[in-house]
TrEMBL record:
UniProt family annotation: Belongs to the ORC3 family.
Record region (Disordered): 121-148, 644-683
InterPro entries listed in its UniProt record: ORC3, ORC3_N, ORC_WH_C
Name this polypeptide is given: Uncharacterized protein
Organism: Piloderma croceum (strain F 1598)
Domain of life (superkingdom): Eukaryota
MF terms (GO), sorted A to Z: DNA replication origin binding
Keyword check for Ubl conjugation: no
Localization of this protein: Nucleus
Start and end residues of each Origin recognition complex subunit 3 winged helix C-terminal domain: 578-721
Domain Origin recognition complex subunit 3 N-terminal: from-to ranges: 37-345
Length: 725
């Protein structure tokens, strides 16, 4: 497959240019490639050899594990909607209201992202993947008769009704009617590729191939439905409605706006004459904060799933804010989790996320000594918790540590962190279970925090007060309710995975003993024994929550497996494009020459042409005379030309000579003036200046900095003001 991007493909909205490495020339004139690991090493001074590649390998494994878990949860959320859509497609031409003057065309509107559409397409037509465009080459023939034929229409390459009908008809007729061999047609005897009669003839062959069974349905999936031209869609619906039910066409509309507000997008955009032809059914996937709570709970705080990287409270807060205020799509949620993983693996120590026995020989190399020094410092650091005192030999223990000892210490810290995280999950789950029980018993609480907020507080270690309050409420329960809450807690521990239940065996044993002690007490009893036992249960709950719901930063080397309070790179999700463009125009050399640290601001003539024109743009008023703008631009280019010639005559390409020179410098200037008057091709230079001005002007126009006015042909309007240099 060619690696050259298809720049001429107008159907591509985004073109990815893979990084191939930079070509540089060293002092010997030898060319070499700059690999990604050399171009991006944020902690190069304390990294190990090939640290970038090793961390990326660990990152891919960790992110794949997290992504598979999130996608499995999303599939479970989508499953009821997908089943309902599939069921409606199969029954679209069976449950028809009798007595209608004409047959309505089934239309299904789905408010969802690409993942749901892919699941629907896969279920409807497994042999023809929905990720491909209908205008592409047909898939290989299937060995069995399909129940549904699916084609796809995209708004980018369907500008008119002819192209739209050609794509719709071609998406079906290019496939085999019987699923065994491709159709062969003579161009001289075939109908036009956009004629729906061609589709009718093809479907007659399909109907005969499926006899005596039920012929398949024809499903048309319109992606990004709001982007289609409404006039084109009106004509499309009208033409297709004339051929149903002989052509069992079913349209699935992919909408980004929910159908619940009245009127919906369909009713706002299309006239009543078009809507009367359709029988619309609306489907929407679950959305809102509840979906975010469900995904994060089952990903981070599910005792049956152990993630490699634990997302910290800062990332959770940023994720919740972005999801509720800006973009509530599941793709945005996955993107934020992806960026959090990428950001976390900048740290060289994250190479120890997994247990890798092959690092021992690498750490013995001399180039790894700075990394070992940093690792030894971290391991020898005193405990983060103020309640844990360092050992008496802490100040001298580092003298006897070797590389195998360091690796064993990392394995011990990894096991300790995962055990601590597992206990945090169990404690938070138990707290939610007890709180739900108390609410069912009529207990009223002013706590309206969501699951995401509870996760945030749990990772911060701030749920101690909640645990004490729950323990106090349990102490006041009578015998029957105390027995019920103990049985509920016992069920909670009993339903855990075997390895977690084994670790929580002491707690489960206590609960079983308390349940047996309450067996002889009456339901409404508040005897001294019940009060004493309730006090024991409440006190145990309080201590259990306080011991397990503490901050994960108390663990050794926690930042290897936990993002903590590291700021989330929100500028990568919601960048300030305007500020970035203005900054790039004002200070272009800061972006071009990354290694060139300048003590002073560059002169105006040293800047690129577009930046020079933009600087003059900032000096103007609301309306800019284009001729005056050109003259000021030409003056700067004349200065640029003189400086470059002076540098060339002096044999110095990097330094410029001041205008205040005397003696020999004055003679150089005079020689330059004579050469310019005699040898310079003025006409050629003027054409170059005009071309450079037009190119820079068009770039500013493309970026939206100027606006043309019909009042004065030689003036443009300035659109951006109040820019701080």
């Amino acid at each position: 497959m060619s690696s050259i991007p298809a720049f001429d493909d107008t159907t591509q909205s985004v073109i990815y240019i893979p990084y191939q490495g930079l070509q540089k020339n060293d002092s010997d004139g030898v060319e070499y490639d700059l690999s990604p690991s050399e171009s991006y090493r944020p902690f190069q001074e304390r990294d190990i050899p090939n640290g970038y590649e090793l961390r990326m390998k660990v990152y891919r494994a960790a992110w794949t594990k997290c992504l598979d878990r999130v996608q499995a949860i999303i599939r479970d959320l989508h499953e009821p909607v997908v089943d309902a859509v599939i069921r409606h497609v199969h029954n679209a031409y069976k449950d028809i209201l009798p007595g209608l003057p004409y047959c309505e065309m089934p239309v299904i509107s789905v408010t969802a992202g690409p993942s749901l559409l892919h699941e629907i397409t896969t279920r409807l037509d497994p042999d023809n993947d929905g990720s491909e465009d209908s205008s592409m080459e047909a898939s290989p023939p299937s060995s069995s008769h399909p129940d549904t034929f699916v084609t796809h229409l995209f708004p980018a390459d369907r500008p008119n009704i002819m192209a739209c009908m050609k794509s719709l008809v071609g998406g079906f007729v290019d496939r085999s009617p019987d699923g065994l061999e491709q159709p062969k047609r003579k161009p001289s005897t075939s109908l036009a590729p956009y004629d729906i009669e061609l589709l009718e003839a093809w479907y007659d062959a399909v109907r005969r191939a499926h006899e005596p069974g039920t012929p398949p349905q024809l499903v048309v999936l319109l992606h990004d439905f709001e982007q289609f031209d409404p006039v084109v869609i009106q004509d499309l619906f009208y033409i297709c409605s004339l051929h149903v039910p002989s052509l069992p066409l079913i349209f699935i509309l992919s909408l980004s706006s929910p159908p619940t507000p009245s009127p919906s997008y369909l009713h706002l955009t299309y006239p009543r004459a078009t809507l009367a032809l359709l029988r619309v059914e609306n489907f929407a996937v679950p959305s809102g904060p509840g979906v975010l709570d469900d995904i994060l709970t089952k990903t981070m705080f599910d005792v049956g799933f152990e993630q490699d990287i634990v997302i910290g409270p800062t990332v959770i807060d940023s994720l919740s804010d972005f999801f509720t205020r800006h973009n509530s799509s599941l793709d945005a949620l996955i993107t934020i989790l992806h960026l959090a993983h990428l950001k976390h693996f900048d740290d060289p120590l994250t190479v120890f996320v997994h247990d890798d026995g092959n690092l021992s020989s690498l750490l013995l190399q001399p180039t790894s000594f700075p990394f070992l020094d940093h690792l030894l410092t971290r391991i020898s650091a005193p405990p983060a918790s103020s309640s844990v005192a360092p050992s008496p030999t802490h100040s001298t223990a580092w003298l006897n540590q070797s590389v195998p000892f360091l690796l064993a210490s990392i394995d011990e810290a990894r096991t300790g962190f995962r055990t601590k995280m597992r206990k945090t999950k169990v404690a938070l789950g138990l707290m939610k279970r007890v709180k739900e029980f108390m609410l069912r018993q009529g207990w009223r609480s002013a706590d309206e925090r969501s699951q995401v907020e509870l996760m945030f507080e749990a990772l911060k270690g701030r749920l101690g007060r909640d645990g004490r309050y729950l323990g106090t409420m349990v102490k006041k329960l009578p015998a029957a309710k105390l027995r019920s809450v103990l049985e509920d807690m016992h069920t909670f521990f009993q339903n855990m995975p075997s390895h977690v239940r084994r670790d929580e065996e002491p707690a489960r044993t206590k609960i079983v003993a308390w349940i047996s002690e309450l067996a002889s007490e009456s339901e409404s009893s508040r005897s001294g024994f019940v009060v004493q036992l309730a006090g024991m249960v409440g006190g145990w709950l309080t201590n259990y929550f306080q011991d397990n719901l503490t901050s994960l930063e108390e663990c050794r080397l926690w930042d290897i497996w936990y993002t903590g309070n590291t700021p989330f790179p929100s500028e990568m999700i919601n960048p300030n494009i305007r500020a970035s463009i203005v900054s790039g125009l004002l200070h272009p050399l800061d972006y071009v020459n990354l290694d060139d640290v300048r003590q002073q601001q560059p002169e105006l003539w040293e800047l690129p042409d577009t930046s020079i024109l933009f600087k003059r743009y900032l000096d103007s008023g609301k309306m800019i005379n284009v001729y005056d703008w050109f003259e000021s631009f030409a003056v700067v280019l004349e200065s640029q030309k003189r400086h470059r010639k002076r540098s060339k005559l002096n044999g110095n390409n990097s330094k410029t000579i001041s205008r205040k020179g005397k003696g020999k410098q004055r003679q150089v200037d005079d020689v330059m003036d004579e050469d310019e008057g005699e040898n310079e091709e003025d006409e050629k230079w003027k054409m170059e200046v005009q071309a450079r001005f037009m190119r820079s002007l068009h770039e500013l126009d493309y970026l939206g900095f100027i606006k043309h006015t019909g009042r004065k042909a030689d003036h443009v309007l300035r659109t951006v003001f109040d820019i701080a240099d």
